[in-house]
Design a protein that fits this description.
heterodimer; A: Alpha-Beta Plaits; four-stranded antiparallel beta sheet; 19 strands; B: 352 residues; alpha/beta; Multidrug efflux transporter AcrB transmembrane fold; Alpha-Beta Plaits; 2 domains; five-stranded mixed beta sheet; two-stranded parallel ribbon; 10% strand
Chain lengths: 565, 352
């Protein structure tokens, strides 16, 4: 009975060990060759299996710039349109005006009746946030009312846009599963540059395209007669402008419309598929991307298997606005605008609240990438790449070598002590420790984790707790032996008592690591990943395996008088 | 068999005043260092380039020295906490990140001062090709912000606190909530003492130190639970003994394990402090302090606090029982625990 038990346990251990060992040193995406099991072959596969982080291996070094001038320009233009509409809504006639956006950012309105300037100012500032004197300086002269953005506000808004871009890039990097990048501002503050260092990734061009994706989403009213007439499109921009009377009024916009375009890998669009068209849309948009709650890539129903579209849902506030608008505009045309280009136009069959699609024959990858950038939020301004380099490990090759050597010295000390102090049982502990390390690496590889210094800290804690588990068990067995118990009963009791302690210490640490893993970022997460894997493995190696070895030793003889411990 | 200790009978709890006094003293010293340094215009902690930002100096060499040589040259000129990162696609180029220090100090000047150990710099207008005697040229100087901004720092603290709450709840579930509270107080003590050392000696605090702090939290909790577990076991076996004696016994019984485990970890970490190199020093020193105090705190902080707390609760319960035994006017309800404890005591006496 007991013999069978040992055999069963041994088989389980051997299978897990072999699988773990193969996960660490065997090639993954192909069948192994004989040469994979030579020393150099193992070293080579090991290097591809274990992903090392930026601090240990180096990676890409990207400097990018946030085009904050685009952000300020768009802000000024939008406020100009809003101001003009606000004045008209309040019943004042505006005969002209402009948004100046080169160098200085200024909104100019020319009222038909200059004497009403003060009233118009009040009406406009009630609706549009131009009354904040720390941002806009107001002046009126020669029949013109003008709001000029102060220098201080330009700096502040540009800095805010950079910070926001930094946060969004961080969200996207995390969503891409790139572990432990470093992200920091770069250059003088006024340069609005961001430095991103990330460990080697498989497809750097894709990452760059995703980071650069502006993902400005708007749902707009496309002007023209309602369905069943087809959507009103124009073959040229001039023709579209002509349709609104030669000058685009402030509450209208002419946008390009390209049907069924598919972004290629680098984000550029293949322009050969269909001729570009133009549509006239209403300003402001019904809702924009800030009202987005979620976005997902899904296969197009009834389309080709490689066709994908993006389903999105709106937050409550957006859904209310959207529902009210669509309810009032049944059969009219609506467009989905992405980064200033109309991606699809459709008529409203019935009232829509919080769901929508972006169609346009995306590939699976481009749909998923777009959904990811939509979820992370729109960048406040476009981003350009200034510099790209490959860099070595940030900890320095020499430090890593020193660290590895020091760890080996430490490990050798531990092994030596266990063998001298616990003799025969020490072998048991060393075997368990070795298995622990193999299985921990296997776990890291299977989870695709990236190993960084904080991760190594997690490994150190794991090894410490693994040694502790064995020490706890052995000390307890010795204690039981001292109290006069027979060897089998001392082993039994020792494991029994120590097991409770080991469970408590391990579960406590695993619980706290799960918090770190779920809510933590960067280095904290890297630490938690290795620790959780390591401790789960340790419950197996230090308790189950160790116990089995004892069972095997004790089971060989009829009566055991002494134990090497 | 080789044996370090057996049959130890040390009255650990009897020395609790000294232990807690020492810990309070250490924490106050750390706090005083942080406050005085901050108040006198210095810095409470020597924050590294990860936290403060600094200057990245891009240097092109004619013959690139090793990372170690560059770092040594910087250290000899007093630039201690530099990150030296080679540009692998341009083998002659190195990025040197130096932390911001004080106002108006130019990272470029400092790096140049150190690099002159390898030869002269090419003139600002020339380059390495036109000036055969020049050894290097600084081709770029850029300010960089902190990697770990305030946001990351706050998040790290919040997440760690949440993890400690998790620990508290689990220990409360498995033992008593006083045990959990004592363990978490001990962890706070360890982190504060370690940070105190970092402030007093102005060791550099980098991101790796954060990893070390997380590790020491793990060690400390592990150690405390081993002692508490033994206390729980002994309480069941020796119901007559006072908690004071049971706790002392538990510490003594687990002492050989404590010494072996902590000693082994201490030696391994010491190897890393001695041979691990300059860059990992902050990490390994934090771990070393953490191992010492994590072990110390489970005996000297967690256990006395837990015993003191339990004794107070017991005293309060006894008082409630007394009140109950007297003729009551109101109808005061007994706390659920009190009669059980009283009967446990009674049965103990009966057996005696």
């Amino acid at each position: 009975m007991k013999k069978k038990n040992v055999l069963q346990r041994t088989i389980i251990i051997v299978i897990i060990t072999v699988v773990g060992l193969y996960a660490v040193i065997g090639p993954h995406r192909r069948w192994p060759h004989f040469k994979d099991f030579t020393w150099s072959g193992i070293k080579e596969t090991l290097a591809t299996n274990i992903h090392l982080g930026l601090d240990l291996q180096g990676g890409s070094h990207l400097v990018m710039r946030v085009k904050t001038e685009d952000f300020l320009r768009r802000l000024t233009e939008e406020d100009f349109v809003a101001a003009q509409n606000a004045a008209k809504d309040a019943g004042y006639e505006i005969k002209g005006g402009q948004a100046q956006t080169s160098g200085t950012y200024r909104i100019v309105l020319e009222p038909a009746d200059a004497s009403k300037a003060e009233e118009i100012k009040q009406a406009v500032q009630k609706k549009v946030e131009l009354g904040d004197t720390s941002i806009w300086g107001y002046s009126a002269s020669g029949g013109q009312m003008s709001w000029t953005m102060t220098q201080a506000a330009q700096r502040l808004l540009a800095d805010n846009a950079t910070t926001q871009a930094l946060n969004i890039i961080e969200t996207r990097i995390n969503a891409l599963g790139i572990t432990e990048p470093t992200l920091q501002t770069h250059g003088a503050q006024s340069a609005h540059q961001i430095l991103l260092q990330m460990p080697g990734v498989q497809d750097p061009e894709r990452v760059k395209a995703i980071l650069q994706g502006e993902s400005r989403l708007e749902l707009v009213h496309v002007l023209g007669p309602p369905s069943p007439s087809p959507a009103t499109t124009y073959t040229s921009e001039a023709e579209a402008i002509q349709s609104v009377g030669g000058v685009v009024p402030p509450n209208r916009k002419v946008l390009p419309y390209q049907e069924r375009i598919e972004p290629t890998a680098n984000g550029a669009t293949d322009q050969t598929q269909k001729p570009k068209q133009w549509v006239v849309v209403e300003v402001p948009a019904i809702i924009d991307g800030s009202e987005l709650r979620n976005a997902n890539a899904v296969g197009t129903q009834g389309g080709r298997s490689e066709d994908y579209e993006i389903n999105f849902s709106l937050k409550k506030s957006g859904a209310d606005k959207f529902g009210a608008w669509t309810g009032a505009h049944i059969n009219e045309y609506m467009g989905v605008v992405l980064n200033g280009e109309v991606r699809s136009v459709a008529y409203i069959k019935s009232q829509i609240y919080d769901q929508g699609q972006i169609t346009g024959r995306f590939s699976q990858k481009s749909a998923e990438d777009l959904a990811l950038t939509l979820r992370s939020g729109a960048l406040p301004a476009p981003i350009e790449y200034l510099e790209e380099r490959t860099v070595g490990p940030s900890l320095g090759q020499d430090s890593i070598r020193a660290g590895v050597n020091a760890s080996l010295v430490g490990l050798a000390l531990v092994v030596l002590f266990m063998l001298v102090y616990y003799r025969g049982s020490g072998v048991n502990a060393v075997l368990a420790l070795l298995l622990n390390m193999i299985l921990m690496l296997a776990g890291l590889i299977m989870f695709g984790a990236t190993l960084t210094l904080p991760g190594i800290a997690g490994i150190i804690l794991t090894i410490g707790m693994a040694v502790d588990s064995n020490v706890l068990i052995f000390e307890r067995i010795r204690e039981e032996l001292r109290s006069g118990k027979t060897v089998p009963s001392a082993v039994e009791q020792g494991f029994g008592h120590a097991f409770i302690t080991i469970i408590d210490t391990h579960v406590t640490t695993i619980i706290s690591s799960l918090f770190l893993f779920v809510f933590g970022t960067g280095p904290i997460r890297g630490f938690a990943v290795t620790l959780v894997i390591g401790l789960l493995v340790n419950l197996f190696s230090a308790v189950y395996v160790s116990r089995t070895i004892f069972m095997w030793v004790l089971g060989r003889k009829e009566r055991v008088e002494s134990l090497s411990i | 068999m080789l044996q370090i200790l057996h049959d130890v009978t040390i009255d650990w709890l009897g020395n609790r005043v000294w232990f807690i006094g020492l810990s309070v003293l250490l924490m106050l010293a750390g706090l005083a260092s942080a406050i005085v340094r901050q108040a006198t215009g210095g810095q409470a902690f020597n924050l590294g380039v990860d936290f403060k930002g600094g200057t990245v100096v891009t240097v092109k060499f004619r013959q690139r020295p090793g990372d170690e040589a560059i770092r040594a040259a910087l250290v000899s000129k007093g630039v201690r906490d530099a990150v030296v990162q080679p540009v692998t696609d341009k083998p002659d180029t190195v990025l040197i990140k130096v932390p911001l220090e004080g106002e108006g100090q130019d990272g470029r000047v400092k790096v140049r001062g150190a690099l002159n150990a390898f030869g002269t710099e090419a003139s600002p207008s020339g380059d390495l090709n036109s000036e055969p005697n020049a050894a290097y040229k600084i081709i770029g100087t850029d300010a960089v912000g902190a990697i770990a901004g305030a946001q990351l720092r706050n998040k790290a603290i919040a997440v760690t606190l949440a993890a400690l709450v998790g620990i508290l709840i689990y220990i409360a579930f498995r033992f008593e909530w006083t045990y959990g509270a004592a363990a978490v107080i001990a962890v706070f003590h360890d982190v504060l003492v370690t940070l105190g050392f970092f402030s007093i000696f102005q060791f550099e605090v980098s991101l790796t130190v954060i990893a070390a702090l997380l590790t020491l939290v793990g060690f400390s909790v592990n150690d405390t639970i081993v002692v508490f577990d033994r206390i729980r076991e002994n309480r069941k076996l020796h119901r007559r003994d006072s908690l004071y004696k049971v706790t002392n016994d538990a510490i003594n019984q687990t002492l050989s394990r404590t010494i072996i485990t902590s000693g082994l970890v201490f030696l391994s970490v010491l190897a890393m402090v001695l041979f691990g190199g300059e860059v990992l020093r902050g990490f390994s020193v934090a771990l070393l302090i953490g191992v010492v105090f994590g072990t110390y705190s489970s005996v000297a902080i967690a256990s006395p606090i837990m015993v003191w707390w339990e004794q107070r609760i017991e005293a309060a319960n006894r008082q409630a029982t007394l009140t109950f035994n007297q003729p009551l006017k109101g109808g005061v309800r007994t706390p659920a625990k009190a009669p059980a404890k009283a009967s446990a005591k009674a049965s103990g006496r009966a057996r005696a």
